[in-house]
Amino acid sequence: MDDANADTSSKPDHDAPGIRADWIWADGDFIGWDDATIHVMSHVAHYGSSVFEGVRAYETPQGPAYFRLREHLERLIASARIHRMELGWSLEELTEASCELVRRNALSECYLRPLVFRGVGAMGLDPTACPVHVFLMAWGWGAYLGDQAARLGIDAAVSSWQRPAPNTHPTMAKAGGNYINASLMKMEAKANGFDEAIALSVDGTVSEGSGQNLFVVHGDVVHTPAIDGSFLQGITRDSILTLARDLGYDVREGRIPREALYVADEVFFAGTATEVVPVRSIDRVAVGTGEPGPVTCVIRDHFATLLRGRSDDTRGWLTYVD
Ligand SMILES: Cc1ncc(COP(=O)(O)O)c(C=O)c1O
User: Fold this and answer.
1) Is the CB of residue 23 below 6 angstroms from any atom belonging to ligand 1?
2) CB 114 less than 6 A from any atom of ligand 1
3) Residue 279 CB coordination number (10 Å)
4) pLDDT per residue over 280-309, tens digit each?
């Protein structure tokens, strides 16, 4: 091996500007970025055996605050339970660790990624001999669909891939393996020149985006697909349903046929990473006027105000880090 090769092999291959953070919480300890590695024989690398969360913390007048951290951690615990993983950490312990992570990394706004996965123990499909590890990562993550998305809207396409049927990949669990399907959708949409995909359910009705829930507005009525086992029950979805009702809109959960997308007045995506993003076209057909609509904008703006602690947190949705 010549010197140049020796040099290359000793270089860390996980230098990732944009998602780097000084400290990562790993099974109860704070460790440095370069130490937060896993072995190639980890069960998760072969079979997708992980469950995870995505939570955002925002800068508020009283310092950084997580939005609905409790509900996200409750869903993490539920996801682990569905996949028969013993977490070993309580909701309170994970809450404290999540807050300490923000303090240690001196972050004012961030995305938190709790990750639970099966490590090294055995190969094959019975993972019970593999230890369960819990990691918490936090980094400053900008707008998921781009800086202009919330203001200008994005272009979406109905995917040729569908969501898995209920009783196949449980969608109430936010499991790593589920996202192979979502990635196919996202890659197809991008390859065809769109920003995001819209997934249909097994019965051909509207399900959700590749990584966010979907809302369809007709007049003053805000529709979203009813829970059908085909999509993740988003915490943002729940927040938007609550907020829209507070704002006086008629909100309905039900089956949405694909063609309703092409005659909607407004369509928008909602999720933790995505936040609220108007959809301005679907399959190259303009949604409404092709501009973000008034109902979407009202909901988007009220939601942003709430996230940043600039309106009354009447439901206790913010967890202040300090
Ligand atoms: C497939 C999928 N649907 C919906 C959502 C929205 O969920 P939440 O609002 O809880 O982030 C996400 C994001 O986590 C997702 O990955």
Assistant:
1) no
2) no
3) 28
4) 999 999 999 999 999 999 999 999 999 999
Q: Which atom of ligand 1 is nearest to the CA of 239?
A: 9
Nearest CA to ligand 1 atom 5: 212
CB of 234 sitting under 6 A from ligand 1: yes
Catalytic-residue membership of 174 = yes
- C-alpha to C-alpha distance for 90 and 241, rounded to whole angstroms: 29
Cα of 180 vs centre of ligand 1, distance in Å, is: 14
The predicted model scores a pTM of 0.95
In CATH terms, 3-139 corresponds, of 3.30.470.10, 3.20.20.140, 2.60.40.3080, 3.30.360.10, to 3.30.470.10
Residue type, 28: G
pLDDT digits (tens, 9 = 90+) for 78-113: 999 999 999 999 999 999 999 999 999 999 999 999
- What is the rounded distance in angstroms from the CA atom of residue 129 to the CA atom of residue 26? 20
